[in-house]
Amino acid sequence: MTTTEGNIPQSLPIDIEAMATALKANPGLLLLYIGLMIDRYIEARVSKHRLNRHRIEIMHTLVLDSSGLTASDISKKTFRSKQRITKITDSLEQDGLVKRELDDQDRRIRRIRITEKGLGSIRMTLPIAIDILNRATLDLTEEELVQLTNLMKKIRRSLRAWLEGSREMPR
User: Fold this and answer.
1) CA–CA dist 88, 44 (Å, integer)
2) Are 78 and 61 in contact (CB under 8 A)?
3) Based on the number of CB atoms within 10 Å of its own CB, is 169 exposed (0-12), middle (13-18) or buried (19 or more)?
4) What pLDDT, on a 0 to 100 scale, did the predictor assign at position 6?
5) CA separation (Å) from 59 to 25, 62, 66, 105, 156?
6) Most C-beta atoms within 10 A of its C-beta, which of 18, 67, 125, 158?
7) How many alpha carbons fall within 13 Å on the CB side of residue 150?
8) The CA-based dihedral angle spanning residues 58, 145, 120, 35, taken in that order and rounded to the nearest 10 degrees
9) Beta-carbon contacts of residue 137 (< 8 Å; ≥ 6 apart)
10) Which residues have C-beta within 8 Å of that of residue 43, sequence separation ≥ 6?
């Protein structure tokens, strides 16, 4: 093996370039990186409201299910650990954005519900997120937006099937 100065193999720059090309070409990684960019930008814009992506995700999940959810339910819907959900929910409850209530049917179960203050917080921050997302897709035609939406829904269905165990993960 031929080495350059400092005992670094001469093939290392070629290997790095090949890896970079593969990373740039992978649509799944591109989707991941775009999601992370959008996530960070939204988080930076809503942080003055004492919100971050994890808190927003839980609050949106609660809005989508107005009957209230248990920490286990939220954990399954967000693919986060129950312990992480409990920690975030504790802070949301301290800020008055969510509340825990005993279940009407089974008093052993505590349901988490969004409060009026939490709903107000979403009303204030949702337009910020929508504005960012609209700007991110500004250069797409209406037809491209429809196609992108359909493709993302298809990817989401596949991911949910794999994560919920109804479909085997590809190797």
Assistant:
1) 18
2) yes
3) exposed
4) 60
5) 35, 5, 11, 23, 20
6) 125
7) 6
8) 40
9) 145, 148
10) 52, 53
39-82 per-position pLDDT tens digit: 999 999 988 888 888 999 999 999 998 889 999 999 988 889 99
Region class of 68: left (phi > 0), else alpha (psi between -120 and 50), else beta = left
- Distance in angstroms (rounded) separating the CA atoms of residues 100 and 118: 13
For 51, counting Cβ atoms within 10 Å of its Cβ (0-12 exposed, 13-18 middle, 19+ buried), the class is buried
Burial (CB < 10 A; 0-12, 13-18, 19+), residue 12, is exposed
In the chain, the largest separation of any two C-alpha atoms, in whole Å, equals 73
Which runs of E-coded beta strand occur in 59-118?
98-102, 110-114
In the chain, the percentage of residues whose pLDDT exceeds 70 is 92
| 3-state SS class at 56 | helix
Write the CA distances from 150 to 60, 157, 159, integer angstroms.
21, 11, 14
CB 44 within 8 A of CB 88: no
Tens of pLDDT, residues 11-43: 778 888 888 888 888 888 889 999 999 999 999
- How is residue 120 written in tokens? 């107000």
pLDDT at 159: 85
